[in-house]
Design a protein that fits this description.
The chain is 25% helix and 37% strand. It contains 3 helices and 8 strands; from the N terminus they run βαβββαβαβββ. Strands 1, 2, 3, 4, 5, 6, 7 and 8 form an 8-stranded mixed β-sheet that branches. The longest helix has 15 residues. It starts with a strand and ends with a strand.
Length: 126
């Protein structure tokens, strides 16, 4: 189940992001965050900045391949469409590009470095 994060969820969300190597954590304060639960445990997190840019997508390793990230994105996509957006942007780590490509994101710029991470800009047209 996908839910919007509340302050009481943040400790578990931060723990998940750290355990998956996602980050940078200071950006959490700037994000609107949704999470995915299974058996009352947070197993996936998606954070959006500027109301249209995916900045964080972390899924617990034991849940990779179980459509957690896809379902998170689909739920958030529906919310952003309802807000009138025609494009969703993503600023992602290079190693996440294959996953985002499977969601039909397209490269929208050249890779750049941010906080010691190589970031690839991508876009999804609604």
């Amino acid at each position: 189940m996908v839910r919007e994060a509340k302050p009481e969820n943040m400790a578990e969300i931060v723990q998940l992001i750290k355990s998956t190597g996602g980050g940078p954590l200071p950006e959490l304060a700037e994000c609107q965050i949704w999470y995915y639960t299974l058996d009352d445990k947070i197993v996936g997190v998606l954070g959006v900045i500027n109301d249209d840019t995916v900045k964080i997508l972390s899924v617990a390793e034991e849940y990779h391949g179980q459509d957690v990230g896809k379902e998170l994105f689909e739920a958030v996509k529906t919310i952003l469409m309802a807000r009138g957006h025609s494009t969703i942007k993503a600023a992602i780590k290079m190693d996440s590009a294959p996953f985002f490509s499977r969601l039909h994101f397209k490269k929208s710029g050249e890779p750049y470095h941010e906080d010691g991470i190589t970031v690839l800009p991508m876009e999804y047209n609604l």
